[in-house]
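Record 1 of the preview.
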Amino acid sequence: MPDSEDTRRDLVENDADYRRLYLEHQEYEAKLAELNAKSLRSPEDEAEEKRIKVHKLRLKDEMEQILRDRMAAGVSA
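->
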């Protein structure tokens, strides 16, 4: 039985919806890193950080649901 990391890799490679969510999550991760690298952050930066974190969490939840569905179905990588 494949583990969750194997299944995640398979989903990134072979599932267009999962790959889209993964890539979008990576984009927001990079934006968050940019914001965190600033030495002085404005109130707008703080609001943007919160927005990004909420969006990233939503994406992660969607990705985890796809992963759970795949694992429950017993589809191997």
